Fold each of these.
Amino acid sequence: MKNNLFILLFTFFLTTNICASDENENLLFSPKGIAEVHITLSNDLTLNQITREEDVTAQMEIKNSENSSYDASQLYKGEIIIKGRGNSTWAGEVRPWYGNSKKPDIPIIEPFKHKRSYSVDLVTESGNDNESTLLDMPKHHKWALVTFFSDKSLMRIPLAYHLGRMMNGFNYSPLIRYVELYVNGEYRGLYGLCEKIERDKNRVDIKKLTADDSDISGGYIIEGTPLDRIDPALRDKSFATNRDVRFTFTYPKTKNVTNQQINWIKNYLNQFETALHGSNYRDSQNGYLKYIDEKSFIDWYIIQELAKNIDAKDLYGSAYIYKDRNEKMFLGPIWDFDIAFGNIDYQECYNEDEFRLRKSKWFSRLFQDTNFAQKVRDRYDELMPLFNQIPAIIEANHKFLEESGCVERNFDKFPILGTYIWPNYRPLPTSHQGEVQRLIEWIESRKTWLYINMGATEADCIERLKNSRPTIRIMEPEIFNNQNASKVRIMRGMGTIYMNSRNFAYIWTHNEEETRVNSYEYTINKEGKHYVQLVDNKGNRSLPSLPVAWGEEPIYYLEEETNSIGKIDKNTFSLFPNPVTNNLTIHSSKFGNSELNIKLFNVNGLLSKEVTRTKENASDYFEMDVSDLQNGIYFLQIRNNSGITNNKIIISR
């Protein structure tokens, strides 16, 4: 099958690892492979009999598969307690709805045909906690087996947690390892074995709080939870702030928390909300900053806004806050992104445009503080090199999952590709590659929309527009790759600052001819390369998108070519060191004394650096200074009079 999608053309240059300097730092998966988890339920129970309310005893063995190589000390064989976990991911029970708005219609799925998530507690034979290190993750006794049922890319949760670890505004982001699960001997598909959010020195490192403590200022871990998800018998152990943001307790445990502790943390949040909405809210000593760790709020906002995570608004669900003793409160850790990053069909979270969290109860007020807004803008720009690496990170993960065989096994067990699973956004890709492509394109488009609309002024937004490339989102990738007429989408305008153009117009270029359209939807049905540019109503244009080619063989280059040109075998030269810190050495004995043009592109397709080796200084070795470039993944293009060649380098300091 022809793969003509240029937004994915960088994947041609990927190797098996993103970064060789730290085998885990830039990977969503462990390079030690995908282990197997075998669970045998006690008392002849079946999978259908596991509930979210009752503990079930079982035996669990974690062992190496044919393609994993964990040390024996990282495996497990022993007793566990297991029960169901999750809300929408459980999707088989409908609890009473106590809220004021309509609950999304979650279809009931026969439990055994559904991949559900589970809580796993490691215990000894006598029932005591059995703390263990699992698959190179720090020792603990509480774990989660996380499903990727609705997320057919199998990557949204691992990607979010990875980004959380890279963003130093969070002291902790959960670790997760891909595993294949067997229950009572039956294969149950690909899962994530994941750290649960718990008070622990290796997780949320806050002080222990008991009923006897006289200082009850911490530590606390609380979770934003809608009323319908709270057992009515436990609602008196939850609380709502004056602004009606409702929380339950993760630590202390619900059964252990005292009324005095509930009232203390409730009062603290009410004081924060009062300060936030007071006339002196910008004051650094007596305003909202008296109560919150600003850095965590900024990073939490950015990753949730990037993902357009539906549950993040008003801290509706899976939104955690923790507070240590005599410290300010932190927003985080992040949790639960399976229906984020465009994998949803309601509340406009499927579109990559618009600000979502700026309309929420806390952040709408925070953004009225121009200092806070500027810090968010600066931090987003600072994080762009990380976000620019997302396509390469996802593609490395995709390659790893495909080569392990687990993608095929998972979807053989659950043949849901191309089938609606709540709340997938239609049209539905019919292949795993299509799901991956959908994810990359959505994030690339969302990232760029946010970058443009983060501008402080309209003039700033215009400058950002001029330096941005839109992303062509192919809505039916399999149809496109089969060279049939295909629907595509481009981001809309809809910014809050960028008011001169509520919606962009679009300039499509095909065979050097431009066509202006006003709709963000477009149909590609002509052979050749297609580009698009955004244009506002003052005529300001973005850079052209990376092209997509319909009806053509793949073309491997990083910039537009107007002439037919050959392709040099990339194995004719070597690059070292790679990763590189300041100086990259390029070696080849086959270039002779020809002139070389050398370019570096970032993962967004933008030219970052260009140098020329002239005939006069020709040799087998050429040194390129990259000390002025930011850390990240870059694509190196070398051209001489016989052709071009491309490869990947990593700048890491």
Amino acid sequence: MATTLEVQYYNSFWMKNLNDLNGNSVWPKGYPYEVAGAFPGTAVDQTNGFTNNWQIEESRIRGGYNNTQVDLGVKAYIVEDEPNQQHRSNSLIYSGIFNSRTGINQTNQFSVAEDITRSIDPINGSIQKLYAEDTNLLIFQEKKVSYSLIDKDAIYTAEGQAITTTGNQVIGQNKAYLGEWGISTDPLSFAIYGYQKYFTDANKGVVLRLSRDGITEISSYGMIDYFRDTFSSINEFSTYGFSTNLAGQGIPSADWSYRFNIGFADQALVNDIQLGMAISTNGVFAGYVVLINYASRIITVDRAVTINLGNTVRFYTPIKNHVIGGYDIHNKNYILSLQNYPEWIESLRPTGYNTLAFDELVNGWSSFYDFKPGLIFSLQSNTYTTHAGKLYKHYSESNGLNRGYFYGVRYNSTITFVFNPESSKSKVFQTVNYEGDNGWQVNSFVSDFQQQDQGYTGMPSWNSYQDTTAQIPSYIDGRYEDTSSGRIVVQRRGFERKENKYFANLINSSTVRLGEVVYGNSISGIKGYFATVTFSTDNKTQAGGAKELWSVGTKFVRNAY
């Protein structure tokens, strides 16, 4: 390490430490310097820590007046009014050019003599995403979306008309899109297909599409309430963790490692501890986990901490919740995954996410998915996602039985819809039928809520009731053999089939209500103004195979009143 001292005659001095091969401090041979009263082996400045291990060397030979001066070469320097480091989150900077054909590489050159920075309005927050499109640069800030011209600028006439000219502007004039929307702090929600760009603004609880006609709020297509409520529950930061009370366990004090085989009796709890987790004792931060031995249950912390008898120890991880977006080129859908806990913590917290798709053909949100991706992207008509460090290809039909199969887990496909004929009349729904492939079952068939007002003594006030049915098995799953008559008779407790149409009776499974004369499974059908039914694929009829559902219907009668 060298330092420069200001001395008489404007000479430059270096503080040097010279060691021999044995590591001992020595004076350079042949240079009996004597400068400013400092002799070899003499301390120069004890207050600054310069001991006799430091020597003095000047730029003039032998230190004589007007003697030959050693050339120090070029000095690199810069004049900065404020030399402190700055974090300009709303500014752009670019380097020199790069040309692989001619071998020019100036990507590490940032000349202060040139105007190479562009600043965007800081009131709109930091820049989160950049996307180059043709000759424009899209700039996504937290609260605004704008674009800048590339390699050109715009000059306006006296009438206000823009004239685009070329010049030496790398990042030209900036112009904002209409609307007070941005990308918040979720650049991973960005996806593109053609001229359509999709992204989210979690701060405003909306999903947006940027196209040639500007920014459109696509979350308003039948999903306003859903996205408003879902985005409000996704905080920017949260913590995942767990606590254990060591009362009565007697964990001894130590400096680095603690054996938790007494305090943590549950092996699964020990396995949940991850590297980098923070530790707190009775709410006070105590360090980070830097080493784990699961076999011996020894946790190594990066600092000394005392865990006293009765302390509550908490292991936790500060995490950033994720909004993951991508374009599904196979189905031409925008896939959006809202994750309270990011994908990398899947093994510890598999719940708390919603993955859904927006379809331009119907201009609405067409489906929910069961998978929780880390990234979503498309390549050559194929759609891929990542999960737990692995790459997965979707819509693979290698064996024809991969439908509903995500990341090693099979899921049943479900469809929920509403029967609402003659909506102002009370009805009794008696049957349900569908046209389609074999393998569909009814998970639930429920009526609308019927509120019971506050009445006489003993009547619970403001109760709400629904008529429900039990699950209706599929044609194959509901098959059983009846041997009560002495011979085998095939019976079905679910869907029957006639002329390739499946139908079943609705058997009421509601709980008993006060005032009802006939109730429960003695009633055929359910009563109400409308009914909500959920169909799903079963687990027996060619699991993972293709199952289509073309139409669903019901038979109902009007009540007498």
Amino acid sequence: MALQTPVDREFAVVARGWLRDRVVLANFREGLRQLLNPETGLPFTESEIQRATQPKSRWYNEAQAIDDYGQSEQRRAIYLADCLRIDRAPTKWLVDFHGRMWGESLLPATGGSGSVLVRGVSGTSVVGSTTLGDPTAHRARDDAGNMYQVLTGATVGADGTVSVQMMATGSGSATNPTEGTTLTWTLRDPSMEPQATVSADFSGGTDRETDAEFASRLLARIRHAQGAGNDSQTRGWTRKSSNAVEDAFVYPCAFHAGSTLIAITQKRGNAVGPLGRFPSAGTLAAAIAHMTPPASAVYPTPPFVLVTPPVSQPANVVLRLEMARGSLSGWTDARPFPSYHAITPYVSAVTSLTDFVITCPGDATLPGQLAGTTLSGANAPAMMLWDRATSRYVRIMATSVQDLGGNTFRVLCSGPVPALSVGFVICPDMARRDTVARAVEGYFDALGPGEVIDATGDVRGGRCVRFPLASEEKPFRAGALVATRVIEALGGSSSDAALASLSRTTPDYPAVLTAGPNMITLGTCGLYSL
């Protein structure tokens, strides 16, 4: 067996058995060929040499023992080599060696934040404070005992409700309650009802920084030298403002000389949907407090610093996949319906969550049927729709599909389709729908915000370029690579994939610079047979 030399190591790595076969036994056999058999007085025959060195023989076992020892020493060398690599080092080496060398340490866990619906008498003041632990701010707890504090005060409206931002006073991924969770007030105005309801999933609650996240920060610091408040140091300071910050994008001189615009993204965690990487109120507040002079602990006065989230610009994707039909590893039906068309099939009318009409421009009739046909039960086409709010496909439990003519079809379902609405994209069903959705979502999660000015015609163009550069990290252009990501995720289930259309490939320059840079996010994702 030949030597294997990985490109990322400076020494050769040999496979198990190489030392036994190519060195020890090979030398022993060559030595025997030069000796006489004391019993016959003749040279050893090849048959005798083979028997003497066959598996489980004394000489073979000795060679195997030498090989095992060599493998153990090699594993120690490989482990030490990995320890010296930041992206492969175990926790102890990463923190106590690499981290200490660069003056960095693991970031602590953070608390989640989100919107809560408060009920009470009209005109009642809900007291908030951006200082966690402020004894005057109203507080509530969830069933698990996690405590939350109102961040910004508000007044109950005429309808007896008001929406406020709240943030966990503790930390960890458990402080991300989902929509509909009930919070019980521990400090409130008597005119408020004793309970409030989470109106939107909390996000930004993270556990302690992981090894991979810490390694990413260290590598970014090493790749771009930090010092004197340069772009790299500004990025590093912002990422350290909260463990919930995924990354920071720096735009020097965005407004004028001496100004800096910083756009942050948030670690997705358990957040769902295309805006899962957009910072929560708590994450944004932590970054603003940490980076904005004169209260900033790191940024000196007088530079003008503005910290913002990016602005979403959805891109609608249509993919075509070549997969087995009538199979759990591919399309559910032998003749997938609806078929691909330049105008994506969509929900055109909704009577109820179990009764709606779809328009399929590429299908005049149901697959292989005459006009006006109704397919019911097991014969009904297997379909799914794209839920834009969660970036996932939802299976349609159709009991019948009726051809209404004019490329329209009435669908009756055995159960309600969640959040069904006109305009939802309809696709043929497949068992691995979640795999495809996660792959597409992951592709868009790897994108960063775009530029804020047209450098070719603006005097700020010589300085106001996004850091890190899109050519190095977090590109902002979307393209055909999304189809490749889907094929990789499906493994051998798909032999080919094509990007049929993409409504947006590059984010626009922002119309209002103070709102932050635009960033392409996932809109709808149509999926059809190739």
